[in-house]
Amino acid sequence: MICYGPVTSRRLGNSLGINNIVAPKVCSYGCIYCQLGKTLRISNVRQTFFKPEEIFETVKHHIEQLKGENKIDYLTFVANGEPTLDENLGKSIICLKELGIPIAVITNASMLFLESARNDLILADWVSVKLDAPDKQTWQTINHPFTGLTFGQHLDNLKTFRIKYKGILCTETMLLEGINDSTDCINRTAKIVKDLNPNKAYISIPIRPPADSRAKTPSSEKIAEAWQIFADHQIKTELLNGFEGTKTGYTGNAIDDILNITSVHPLREDSVKELLEKDNADFSVIESLISKQQIKETHYNSHKYYVRQH
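Predicted structure:
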């Protein structure tokens, strides 16, 4: 499932997702809030998953098959794991630039200790890096990084990348109740973000079923406090604390659309119903996929979701 969407992104408008990591999930982190579930394979070794030409042709074909008004604002590498684990990421970005659509990469930034990963990311027009914690203990509690990477090295690698990167750089901080939402923790995180001088800092909360039940949404007071603290540090900050909407791209093939999107993006029930209607399909498609154990139903914050079952 290389390509999916476009889906409505709180950061990037209509985002056509590119999944350059094969199933099951391969990541350099094991974040407790990950919407894709627990990391089945933790790795810090770059490898080949798909040939760049295959990614290009798949994305091009997908765009040609899209129905209705599906203007794409970004081609976004947001994978079934960490996209920079793909050693061909840079080559794929170069190929996709032929389509004339800006390219984004959402990364946990843990692979920036490698010059090759930094050079690949430099090719993207927009990069978001994860920054959830201000210290080693909180970082390990939330992100569970691969063995061998220290927190100090991680911050140094981010600074090295920032010096060279000329595109739009954003940071994203996932706020979690009782873990990184204390006033002191937020203040220290904001100082690190400030040093990176991002074009924009995003503060997010869990809105989809997380990998670990410890990942809970903070109170509205804590969310507001976090925004104010970041703003007090003169950081351009935006909250990502709401549902993006039900709009998704559709190709006319309901099964492919649902499987592609749920591989990396859990679909809320209202989004599924709208997608089925666009694809001229009924709910029996969902029932069939569940019976075949290709997707499963789950609940989070009083909402029903459908996620890919690998």
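Summary: The mean pLDDT is 88.
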